[in-house]
Every structure is written in structure tokens, then in C-alpha cells.
Design goal:
417 residues, alpha/beta, Rossmann fold, 2 domains, 7-stranded mixed sheet, 5-stranded parallel sheet, 15 strands, 37% helix, globular
């Protein structure tokens, strides 16, 4: 394999696009506290996500995205996937002087962090924090619970479902759908959206099951798989993530369940291994990027990450978040969170899927979305596998930004500029 790190000139141009000239500023290390489940059932994807962030920060520093002398550092803090433990870690990082927080593993944790950050910022003017949300998907985070200090870089669950159900509606073979999810905020949102959107687009499709299970506690999904099989479903929609998705897929494989799975996060650590050959051509995923995209944008990072960690780079929102943060620092000549937050509103950066725009009204990133199918690597349109399985993602459809865009009910309160 040719040397791929640092990225090629072409990739560097893509990554750096939009980082314009800015006022001179004194050199500064901008520290991001990555608060997520670095232990417990959901640790594998969070640990990989942390490394994804650290790789992009390393590239950003080499290429001076944030301007001459400024560097970005990402440090992990174990929130254990718990709102209480994450809130405790928030207090720790505040005491240590961090001004930027990254999190994405669980919307329940995200709500707790937003609440803590809002209260801290209100009580401590001049010491504000900004929250870079890389994957907490509950739509309320940018609707009823929206915050000036919160920026979400992944499509939320309603945006994903809009794209997914538009794709499913075009397939006349889909007749019966079973919905299954984790019994917490996101699982409820996925269930609601799946039923509402399919009814609007394909009222002939039957919802033959709608089940919720405890999050991070089920060890054997065979009873749930038996219910799916008994329902006669030809398709399953699930917002499950982490170990809960891996175990569900594994149980379906063991039971030889002959259905198509439509997922949100089947690319995250542990799930590809659980799928293996049994998931080929039957597991589909909706997200904003995958490495076998039409131009293989991000390939340099994928290859460099694999070489360094022998793991997969899959968190494109780590790139979007750091690119936007760096651009705001460079534009304003400051790492002050208030100035940076105002600069990121309405900002567009070029990422691996094209243009990513941070909508000003609710701080929800707007971007293209891919529907992809798990399939065997062929060296052509499927060059990159995951977890050394020999299988990777193939684009079924790239959906334009406007298709998945959702209205917002956000009534954002902004600080004085």
C-alpha cells in the first residue's frame, strides 16, 4: 500500500476547503473533552470514535486548519454511558479548564449534558462551553431542547428516517415491517417516525410489530427474533446501536431470519463482525457517509487510521466538527467559545460527503445522506471492508440534502453578541 499519511494533496484540498484567512491571534491549544462510554457495554464504538476524533485533530494540526500555531487536542473522559456519570465528568472537565465538549453515545446523556452546560454558561459568563454533538440523534435536541451552545453534526433520527422511508417506499416488495428499538428517547423517536413516515408514503405497508427492549441489558435477543419471525415481516427497522445492535443481528443470523434490516449505525465497532457473511445484501444502513462513496472521499484518512490503529475510521462527523471548529477559530482569530459559536452558525464546510451546513435556526447540520448495503468487497465500487471481514458498504442511493431536511420548532435564546 502506498504511503497515505499525511493525506494527499487532493485530499488535503478537500479537507481544508473553506478555511479562509483570518485575523492574527496568539497560538493556543484548544482542548476538547470527549465525554462518552469508554467502559461498559457501549465502550467499543465510543473508544473508536475517540480515536477517530484524535486522528482528525492530528491532521488538522499538521495542516494548520485553525491557523498558524493553534492546535486542537482531544482527551477522553469516561461517562460510562450514564447521564449521571457524564454530568459528573462535565464538572471535572470544567474544573480542568476545558471549553469544548464532544459527545454522541446516547441521547439520554446528551440531554443531561445540555442541561448542565446551559446552567453553567448562564451562571459563569466569560467561561462558556460549546458542545460538539457527534451522534446523539433524538430530534428534540435541536427542537424543543435546542440550545445555542449545542451543535449537532450528524443527521438526526427524523432526517435519517425521511431518507430511509423514501428509499423503502420505492420498493414494491416491501409489504410488512417490524420496528424494534431500545426503550429510551431515541428508540421512541425512531418508532414514531417509522410508522408516521411509512403511512404517509406507503399506506399499504403493514406495521406487523413495534417492540422496545431495555437498553444495554438484554444479552439474548432470540425471543425478539422469534417474534419478528412469527410476525411474517419481510423488513425490520431498528435504531439500535452499539452492543444492542450487534447482539440483535447475531441472534437473527443464528435463527436464519430471512428479512432485510434497515439500520442507523450498522457500521459502528462490533456490528460488522456480528453481521459477517450472513448480513450480506440484507443489512442496509442510512448515514451521511461511508468509505466506498462515489469518489472514495476520505480514503486517505480511512487508510491512515487502519495503518495506525488496525481499526476502522467511520465517524465522519469527527471531521465535520473539527473542520468547522477550526474554521471558526481561524475566521475569528480567537478560541473563545462565544465567538466560535456565533461563527459556526450558518457555516458551511467541505467534508467527505460534500457540503455540510450548520443551520443557524437550530444548529442541526444539513448534508447529503447515503443508503448503503452490506456486501462483499469487489475491489471496484466496494474497496474497503470493515473489521477485516471482507465485507463493506455499497451505495444504493445518495440522497440530496433537501430531501431529508426537516422543519424545526427551535426557539433559540442567544447570548449578547
Amino acid at each position: 500500500m502506498k504511503k497515505t499519511f499525511p493525506p494527499s494533496a487532493a485530499a488535503a484540498a478537500l479537507i481544508a476547503a473553506g478555511l479562509c484567512l483570518a485575523p492574527a491571534a496568539s497560538a493556543e491549544t484548544v482542548r476538547i473533552a470527549f465525554i462518552d462510554a469508554l467502559s461498559g457495554a457501549f465502550a467499543p464504538p465510543a473508544q473508536t470514535a475517540l480515536k477517530n476524533f484524535q486522528m482528525i485533530a492530528e491532521i488538522a494540526n499538521q495542516q494548520k486548519w485553525a491557523g498558524p500555531g493553534n492546535t486542537i487536542e482531544v482527551v477522553g473522559f469516561d461517562g460510562k454511558g450514564s447521564p449521571q456519570d457524564s454530568a459528573s465528568q462535565l464538572k471535572t472537565v470544567i474544573d480542568q479548564g476545558y471549553r469544548y465538549i464532544a459527545q454522541g453515545g446516547g441521547s439520554g446523556v446528551a440531554f443531561a449534558l445540555i442541561d448542565g452546560i446551559n446552567k453553567h454558561n448562564e451562571r459563569n459568563p466569560g467561561k462558556e462551553l460549546v458542545y460538539l454533538d457527534y451522534a446523539a440523534l433524538d430530534p428534540d435536541l435541536t427542537n424543543s431542547k435546542c440550545s445555542f451552545w449545542h451543535f449537532r453534526f450528524e443527521p438526526n433520527s427524523d432526517m435519517r428516517m425521511e431518507a430511509l422511508t423514501s428509499y423503502m417506499a420505492s420498493n414494491p416488495a416491501i409489504k410488512k415491517v417490524f420496528v424494534i428499538g431500545q426503550n429510551y428517547a431515541l428508540g421512541h423517536q425512531v418508532s414514531r417516525a417509522a410508522k408516521d413516515y411509512l403511512k404517509r408514503k406507503r399506506p399499504d405497508i403493514q406495521i406487523v410489530g413495534d417492540d422496545l427492549h431495555p437498553i444495554a441489558t438484554v444479552k439474548d435477543f432470540s425471543p425478539y427474533v422469534a417474534k419478528i419471525k412469527a410476525s411474517g415481516a419481510d423488513s425490520v427497522i431498528t435504531g439500535n446501536w452499539g452492543n444492542d445492535l450487534a447482539l440483535l443481528i447475531r441472534a437473527a443470523k443464528d435463527a436464519q431470519l430471512d428479512v432485510n434490516f434497515y439500520t442507523y449505525t450498522a457500521y459502528t465497532t462490533g456490528v460488522p463482525t456480528a453481521m459477517g457473511a450472513a448480513g450480506a445484501d440484507r443489512v442496509k444502513n442510512v448515514s451521511q457517509w461511508h468509505p466506498n462513496n462515489e469518489s472514495f472521499a476520505g480514503a486517505d484518512v480511512v487508510e491512515a487510521f487502519k495503518k495506525k490503529y488496525n481499526e476502522d475510521y467511520w465517524l465522519m462527523s469527527s471531521h465535520s466538527a473539527i473542520a468547522m471548529l477550526a474554521k471558526a477559530i481561524k475566521q475569528t482569530g480567537s478560541a473563545d467559545p462565544v465567538k466560535v459559536a456565533f461563527a459556526m452558525e450558518g457555516m458551511t464546510v467541505k467534508s467527505f460527503n460534500g457540503d455540510v451546513e450548520m443551520r443557524k435556526s437550530d444548529h442541526q447540520a444539513q448534508q447529503p445522506i447515503y443508503i448503503a448495503t452490506w456486501t462483499k468487497v469487489n475491489g471496484k465500487d466496494v474497496r474497503y471492508d470493515q473489521e477485516n471481514t471482507g465485507y463493506g458498504w455499497k451505495t444504493e442511493k445518495k440522497i440530496d440534502t433537501f430531501v431529508a431536511t426537516q422543519p424545526t420548532s427551535c426557539q433559540m435564546k442567544r447570548p449578547a453578541g
